[in-house]
Amino acid sequence: MKKLATATVAAIMCGAPVMADLVFPSLSYRTGPYAAGGIPFADGYADYMTLLNERDGGIGGVMTRILECETGYNTEKGVECYEATKGEGSLVYQPLSTGITYQLIPRATADGIPLHTMGYGRTSAKNGAVFSNVFNYPANYWDGASIAVNHLLDENSGSLSGKKIALVYHNSAYGKEPIRTLEGLSEKHGFDLTTIAVDHPGQEQKSQWLQIRRERPDYVLMWGWGVMNQVAIQEAANIRFPMENFIGVWWSGSENDVLPAGQAANGYKSLNLHGTGKDYPIYADIQKYVIDAGKAAGAGDQIGTVLYSRGMYAAMLAAEAVEKAQSIHGVMDITPAQMRDGMEALSITNAILAENGMPGFGPEFDVSCENHGGPGLGFVQQWDASAKQWNLITDLIASDKDVIMPLVEADSAAFAAESGITPGCS
Amino acid sequence: MFYREAGDFKTSYAKDSQTFPIKFDRWRYYLVLAVAFLVIPFIINDYWANAVFLPFLIYAIAAIGLNILTGYAGQVSLGTGGFMAVGAYATYKLTTAFPDINIAIHIFLAGGITAAVVTLFGLPSLRIKGFYLAVATLAAQFFLVWLFNKVSWFYNYSASGQINMPEREVFGVLVTGPNTQAWATYLFCLVFVVFAGVVARNMTRGSLGRRWMSIRDMDIAAEIIGVNPLTAKLSAFAISGFFVGISGALFFSVYLGAVEVGEAFGINKSFLVLFMIIIGGLGSIFGSFAGAAFMVLLPVLLKNVLVGGMGWDTALAAHLEFVIVGALIIIFLIAEPHGLAQLWRVAKEKLRLWPFPH
Question: What's the domain range around B146?
Answer without folding.
Answer: 44-266
